Amino acid sequence: MPSYSHDAMTSLVDVKHGLISREIFVNDDLYQQEQEQVFARAWLFIGHESQIPEPGDYVTSCMGEESVILTRDRDHHIHVFLNTCRHRGMKVCRYDEGNTPVFTCPYHGWSFATDGKLVGVPHQQAAYRGQLDVSQWGLIEVAQMTNYKGTIWATWDPAAPPFLDYLGEMKGYLDTALDCRDGREGGSEVIGGIQKWVIPANWKFAAENFAGDSYHNISHRSVDLVGIGPSGEGRRDMAERKRSKRVVSCIPNTGHSAVSFLEPEDMPFVPSYENNPVVRDYFQHVYEERRRRMGSASRLQGLVGTVFPNTSYLARQPRTISVWLPRGATKTEAWRWFLVDKDAPSEVKEVMRHYAMRYSGPGGMTEQDDMENWNYASAASKGVIARRYPYNYEMGVGLEYADNGLPGQVAERISEHNQRGFYQHWAKLMAALSWDEVMAR
Ligand code: FES
Ligand code: FE
């Protein structure tokens, strides 16, 4: 039974009045409840199939606080295992990535095949005298796993709804980050390694920012002035957006939300990378292909979004997936993957890789701005006095509406509608005893 009940969560998260307690960002007991109620039950992003193309390939990833192994077995099946030995708990795989026929535990040497089976026990006959049932002591596998357009997701909860039900109408927005620029489904690969860094703030600061904080442009003013964008203007290609309408969308009862652009029907291709004909021509080609393949649906251009609870995307080039891993009430480990169209010319991929490094993560020029905010906001919210005062999420209360052409409940550009949807769902999941309760409207 969760220690913070439904009533307690309602007093912490009052979306009707746009008031959310600082406790949910700093309190250790709430953090522990989150591990059970949110991270042990929700669908979580693990990695991309292009990271493990061959049998025996593996990468280590995380589900919430816990390390997992994403691997491809000899029959090409993908698995996600808890990265812990069944004998005495040693971390079985201590590398970030590689290829192996078996995972051999460094402590006493139990070996597990890439399908998770326990296949080697040192001195098995002499030590166990035939009493060890190896079929019962394989690696612990997730309850459900799916490969959605090349992205691998998993949950520890056998009762969780199937991934596509869990995603609901968010699919339409997530696809803007997962499909190729020309509108083909999937067909992406990860470029470079995964960026990993630590942020001294609660994971929800990052998740809600990507869920729909369209209000923090002042934070990025300096980098916009520098002009690191592909066309030498703002940090992203802003030219193509000047005629587009920005919308924030929240998918009710899921916690998922997105910020997107709706392009006018007659919007022409706006070239970026004009000084590089290969890259410019590639983007012109994919723009025209996208319009041809998708028709009016191509008008929806993704910007950012968060798949509840902790997977965010940036749908620009290169597309990114970020995961905000909880490491304590006021500590988060951020991991970021960069996606490009697998069949793009190598020069395009190389330019994207450079842009990713320039833009993103702690070594880029943009995101320190965000991290600086979360860092100081977290530190300034921990004290016993500060905790008495809730944050303000009033912006745009009651102004959301259903739009026939767009999934979810939509609001105009500047609103905290998405954040309220995120926390409403978070509070519900924190107190709910079953998925029936979570999914009930
Ligand atoms: Fe792994 Fe003992 S802890 S073999
Ligand atoms: Fe930002």
Biggest sheet, strands in spatial order? 13-19-18-17-16-15-14-22-21
Q: Uncertain regions: pLDDT < 50 for 5+ in a row?
A: none
Associated small molecules:
FE2/S2 (inorganic) cluster, fe (iii) ion
Number of strands: 22
Q: What level of helicity do the residues show?
A: 25-40%
Number of spatially distinct domains: 2
Helical stretch count? 13
Shape: globular
Q: What structural category do the secondary elements indicate?
A: alpha+beta
Average pLDDT score = 93
- The name of the CATH topology of the largest domain is Naphthalene 1,2-dioxygenase Alpha Subunit, Chain A, domain 1
Radius of gyration: 23 Å
Largest sheet properties: 9 strands, antiparallel
Strand content: 25-35%
CATH class of the largest domain: Alpha Beta
GO molecular function: 2 iron, 2 sulfur cluster binding; dioxygenase activity; iron ion binding
Domain Rieske: 43-141
Organism: Entotheonella factor
Keywords: 2Fe-2S, Aromatic hydrocarbons catabolism, Dioxygenase, Iron, Iron-sulfur, Metal-binding, NAD, Oxidoreductase
